[in-house]
Design goal:
By secondary structure, the protein is of the alpha+beta class. The chain is 41% helix and 17% strand. Helix 2 runs antiparallel to helix 3 and helix 5 runs antiparallel to helix 9.
């Protein structure tokens, strides 16, 4: 009896250590999987395969070396890690990214890996469009796919009929992928539905690491525009103060990925039209309608600075040639920059601004400009900057309430960092994976190739 009791006591003392080792290896494997999918360093894919094929003892034998490589990777990315000593579990937890969505991402990746291994993932035919009310064999594939991805409840048993419950599920799927929410399963929705689970996991992993590294270097106050998401966020004191939809550059006139500092706010700006836009975009409109210059509030100058005056017919004649003139659009309701412009230094002649074309913000694809960023909640952004950063607040109050069109540049007490980024996948909650089209085709191999189909030729 004494021997049995001693053995039991010994097992109870050993079991917690073994359990902690198992937890450490489990967490470690998830971390390795994330790094292997991201593809920044090919050795992590090798480590992950080693872990899949190794016994627990072999995993423990390689633990310290791999842990060191992961720590070095994060340090090379500029990420500060928590220093930790002690048992394996403590050291594994110390090198995990300190981000709220980290657990959401690795849990989603694990689920997607399971889907990849357990499902044939049949493809929806591109030749068939499905609409609410349809009866079609592909409805069953559609329903199974939406169930697997979490947009349709497992209890749905609609057979071949595209019913209201399925319509709501398709709308949820389209919302999560930044698609037009019309419940029509056409080519773009089909492309996302057909995407393999492993590819989804890759997008989540790559974008999480890019996003985590980038956000780790930011201060407590900044303006961030995620180009493929068509969204702007204003963060102050570490808290989200403003969110807005935006319009960004088309595939052919891309908004650059960059960082700068907003240094001035302009009320009632004039628009100095870049020479290329004058020739490519405005000249054809003048050819079609010689009165376009006057009706849209443009002043025309030669390159010696002399203001030009011509009849509509004369402008049409001049537009048939090289059109070597400089155009400046006066402030007004037709001005392409709207009421506000937010200036930041850059080599691309882009900035944030208002727009008279408010209806465009309701479109799902908003890659429509010539590179500048149009802000839907522009009044809220201008008022926040005025309240928190504008030096001459009295003049601001006078002009913002003045229906006149006086142009005024306002200096700021401090600059507002601005970051134009390119992230196409993220977790918006523990079960809400968001994906966006790679509108500029910047993703590594395996990209969906989805891009915005339409664009316009204004700032």
């Amino acid at each position: 009896m004494r021997l049995t009791g001693l053995l039991l006591t010994t097992l109870l003392l050993i079991s917690p250590v073994l359990a902690d080792d198992r937890r450490a290896l489990d967490y470690f494997e998830r971390h390795l999987r994330l790094l292997s999918l991201a593809g920044d360093d090919p050795k992590f894919a090798g480590y992950y395969q080693l872990y899949l094929s190794s016994s627990q003892n072999d995993k423990l034998a390689h633990f310290d070396d791999i842990l060191m490589d992961i720590s070095l990777y994060w340090q090379q990315q500029g990420v500060q890690l928590t220093s930790a000593t002690g048992d394996r579990l403590q050291r594994v937890l110390a090198i995990e990214p300190r981000a709220r969505d980290y657990l959401w991402v690795i849990n989603r990746v694990r689920y997607l890996d399971w889907l990849q291994a357990s499902s044939d993932w049949p493809q929806l035919s591109r030749d068939v469009w499905l609409r609410p009310g349809d009866q079609h064999p592909q409805v069953r594939i559609l329903a199974d796919r939406l169930k697997a991805l979490g947009d349709l409840h497992e209890s749905w048993q609609g057979g071949r009929h595209y019913d209201e419950t399925l319509r709501q599920a398709v709308l949820r799927f389209q919302q999560r992928h930044g698609l037009e929410m019309d419940a029509v399963v056409g080519p773009r929705t089909q492309t996302w539905l057909n995407m393999a689970p492993e590819r989804r996991a890759q997008l989540l992993a790559r974008n999480f690491i890019d996003r985590f590294k980038y956000l780790s270097s930011l201060g407590d106050r900044y303006l961030l525009v995620n180009i493929p998401a068509y969204e702007m966020q204003l963060v102050d004191d570490g808290l989200l103060r403003l969110h807005s939809r935006v319009i960004v550059g088309s595939r052919y006139r891309q908004t650059p990925v960059m960082q700068s500092q907003i240094s001035n706010l302009v009320i009632n700006p004039s628009w100095r039209v870049p020479r290329k836009l004058t020739y490519r975009d405005i000249r054809p409109k003048i050819l079609n309608d010689g009165s376009y210059i006057s009706t849209k509030g443009f002043d025309a100058y030669d390159y010696q600075g002399n203001k030009l005056e011509h009849t509509a017919e004369e402008w049409q004649q001049l537009a048939m040639s090289r059109f070597p003139y400089r155009l400046v659009q006066r402030p007004g309701e037709d001005n392409a920059l709207g009421r506000y412009k937010f200036h930041f230094a850059n080599d691309f002649s882009v900035y944030l601004h208002d727009t008279p074309d408010k209806h465009l913000f309701s479109q799902a694809d908003r890659a429509l400009s010539s590179g500048c960023i149009r802000v839907e909640r522009v009044d809220a952004l201008a008022n926040w900057i005025a309240a928190n950063l504008v030096t001459d607040k009295q003049t601001w109050v006078e002009l913002v309430n003045d229906p006149g069109l006086q142009t005024q540049w306002f200096a700021l007490d401090d600059v507002l960092p601005i970051h134009l980024v390119y992230w196409t996948a993220w977790m918006q909650g523990p079960d809400n994976a968001q994906f966006r089209s790679d509108i500029y085709r910047k993703q590594p191999s395996g990209s969906t190739g989805l891009s915005a189909a339409a664009y316009t030729n204004t700032p």
